[in-house]
Amino acid sequence: MTTGFALHSISIYDRGTRIDDALLVIRQGRIHYAGPRRERELPADLPLIDGHGWGVSPGLIDLQFNGAYGHDFTRDPSSLLAVARRLPETGVTAFLPTFITSPIDSYIEKLNRVRIAQQAQSQGGETGARILGAHVEGPFLNPAKKGAHRQEWFIDPTLEALEQLQPLEAVRLLTLAPERAHGLQAVRWLSERGVVVSIGHSAAGPQETCAAVEAGAALATHLYNAMRPMDHRDPGLVGALLVNDTIRCGLIVDGVHVHPLMVRLAYRLLGPERIALVTDAMAAMGMPSGESLIGDQTVYVDETSARLADGTLAGSILRLDQAVRNMVAFSGCSPAQALQMATSTPAAVLGLEGEMGRLAPGCPADLAIWDSSLHLQATFMDGRPVYTAPAVQPLFASLASPV
Ligand code: ZN
Fold first, then answer.
1. What pLDDT is attached to residue 403?
2. How many angstroms is it from 225 CA to the middle of ligand 1?
3. 204, CA 20 to 30 Å: which among 250, 287, 326, 361?
């Protein structure tokens, strides 16, 4: 049984840098070496694969993902593992299943499903993208910025309400509007318990935003969308975020949710360490156009967008590999920087830098392999191919057995 492999004649993309003529050595499912070819002998005991100039990045990480392939997690949390198994087709190797606003007493079932799915993955045998915990988007949102959420289920984040989010260990990230009553107290309470708090669906102004960041908010949910916009006499939440020095922002780069020019503006101000590309994808991603559901609401899907009957955007049909390509096209950043925004930056949001989203020695060999136009050729998890495009299948066929 093979214990790994070495990939040479590749470019490596790691945390915004690019190394050409690189070598990647995988042993026991982990990264052993990732760096210049000239600094290492080719290992004699492992299969050698010629990468023909491909790019290799860490597997992609999506912090906001409502479902895909006909499944909506809020409506059917039992679909988590089935969707996770297909996500490597898009280069994604880790994600936060996202639940939109639901009745407060219904989260317990959803969060238990997340725990069960995580346990199934940790026991081995599952090939799907890693479920890192839930992103709970709502129910503590501002009705003025409700987007596609059901306003009748919005509540204040009182201690009593927060205590209904059980098991809390399954909550990795929570989006709230800090201007709601008890909002800042909730930011502190959640942050102290290891939940990353994100500001979103919010009409907060600069002072409220600063107070939320001081209380521990570390992220903003889908920058620009469902936020109080920027005006030259009223900077709003957007203005406050763009000039803040610490907070990171999720950004939906499908060309529909945010104008390409505003993507470029965010990139110039925040840079690749503070933008996390997210898909906010919903059940229709990976499906033909037509009617679909998000939560319990009907959504009308065409080639580029998913909308409620009144035209409100309701999640996206964006794949994260496409978001990476769009980011290069819209912002003028390099492929290395675009990949950074879908790997090490989202990992850093979750406090996982050093554990994933990098090609550093010791990290799991979760990899995405790209051609020169940033189209996905293969995805690896723990050093095993979990997705291969038809053209490269023969090259990796010998690695299909466990390493
Ligand atoms: Zn949202």
1. 40
2. 7
3. 326
